[in-house]
Amino acid sequence: MTPGPVEFGVLGPIRVLRDGVEQRVGGPRERAVLARLVFDANRVVSVDRLIEAVWHGDPPASARGQIAICVSRLRRALGQAGSAVDTASPGYVARLDEDTADWLRFNGMVGRAQVRAAGGDAAGAVVLLREALGLWRGVPFEDLPGLRAEAVRLQSARLDAVEACAELELRLGLHHRVGKDLAAVVAEHPLRERARAQLMLAQYRSGRRADALRTYQDARRVLVEQIGLEPGPELRELHEQVLRDAPALRAWPRAEAQAVRPAELPRQVLPFAGRSAELAELDAALDPGPDVLGAVVLTGPGEVGKTALALRWAHQRLDRFPDGQLYADLVDDFGRPVPPAAVLDRFLRALGVPAASIPDDPGEKVALYRSTVSHKRVLVVLDGAVDHAQVRPLLPSGAHARVIVTSRHPMDELVARQGAHRAFLEPLRREESWQLLTMLLGHDWVAEERGEAGRIVGSADGFPLPLRRAAAGVRAAPRRLDRRRLTGVPA
């Protein structure tokens, strides 16, 4: 049986899990080396720093050799996962991702929360921050004296996240929740002035004015006694506002903007004939279930009806996407590819992100877009894609989003790298072409002009757009003159 993936945890006592079961990875030296490598995951840690982590300023003469022995033991203990610990001058590097290291996962969630908050989604940012803080299991590196500085950095990152979350929750009017959480933080870290100010504001808004004043007096006493300083300007100003019952404190924060539900789909092409098997294939590939990849590439020659099929399916399944539908034509009027950054700007504005909050950096723009739609049930239609590089930044994240990409190209990279389902669109079958022509020109015309109808169906060769053009020509001219023109007879 193949062993399951290994997870590394440093947000508390260091641990290694395989299939959810904690594994033993050696003694204190191996644990110190592993902790330092995981803390600096994907960055080279020199042998000298590993020596400091193990012996804390008092190494033996054989320290460098013993570090090499520790790394060798770690690799053996980790089994297949030991390959993640790589030799890289002047030391070693642990090559990990968010799925395998809680510290990386924490930083990733905090970063995505910052992007959401910048985009105006305070509630979504709070969800991410709460999830990130839930990864903590206790005091990091408590039994590893050589990693005191790293432990302080971890705790500082946690407190920064706590305060960021409290700031957003106060904005959302969740002061009761904030007060309960911050009381414990202030008791444990009495010198954190920002947390003190947030606790005071939460207490005041909860109708506990006396408690808010007492929190300030406690802060002043601790600061004067421990470091000989008066409280900073933020705390002093807040204290004055509480004493005066300043209206700004009583005023509720502005209401969050209503969620914007874009509806960008073009009108579907009507009438529409055939394609029942293709519609069923789209249903299966874009099923709302959680185990579906949720991205389809409709590929085929020009004028075969890729866009019409995508829009037909999208309009018939609007109820699956209550959070909106986004659409982009990826080729401009001059036949040039549209840059992904331009599409992202438009998508973000359509999703309600203020223009001033849209970052200039392309990577940050992608992150904001994916964060904005990560929990939404949205459909994204990307029409006329040129290549994988154009499409990749426009792919949403989240289990509920669905994507349809149309392209004349097979988009092999999108299928290989993103796991998209590819559907090759063939021309209409002959009976479907007859059905479409009948819907366009009516039963009477097709019955009376059977020969001309057959010529149109044959010349279109199953391609809907040429057939529609021919039908439009018939409707635009008197019947007799039109028939002569189409058959080459002079009028």
Characteristic key phrases:
22 helices, Rossmann fold, 491 residues, disordered C terminus, 4 domains, flat, 53% helix, three-stranded antiparallel sheet, five-stranded parallel sheet, Arc Repressor Mutant, subunit A, alpha/beta, single chain
Describe the 3D structure.
The chain has 491 residues and is α/β, with parallel strands linked by helices. The chain folds into 4 domains: 1-172, Arc Repressor Mutant, subunit A; 193-252, no CATH class; 276-424, 3-Layer(aba) Sandwich (Rossmann fold); 430-487. 53% of the residues lie in helices and 9% in strands. It is built from 22 helices and 11 strands. The chain has helices spanning 28-39, 47-55, 63-78, 102-118, 122-133, 148-171, 175-188, 193-205, 209-227, 233-244, 247-250, 276-285, 306-316, 340-350, 362-373, 388-391, 412-418, 430-441, 443-448, 450-460, 464-476, 479-487, and strands at 6-9, 15-18, 21-23, 45-46, 85-88, 91-94, 295-299, 325-329, 379-383, 402-407, 421-424. The strands form 3 sheets. The chain has a 5-stranded parallel β-sheet with strand order 8-9-10-7-11, with helices on both faces. It has a 3-stranded antiparallel β-sheet with strand order 1-2-3, with no helix packed on it. β2 (15-18) and β3 (21-23) form a beta hairpin. α6 (148-171) runs antiparallel to α7, α8 (193-205) packs antiparallel against α9 and α21 (464-476) packs across α22 (479-487). The radius of gyration is 32 Å and the shape is flat. The relative contact order is 0.07. Mean pLDDT is 86; it is low at 251-258 and 480-491.
Short description:
The chain has 22 helices and eleven strands. The chain has about 500 residues and is of the alpha/beta class. Strand 9, helix 16 (about 390) and strand 10 (about 400-405) form a beta-alpha-beta unit.
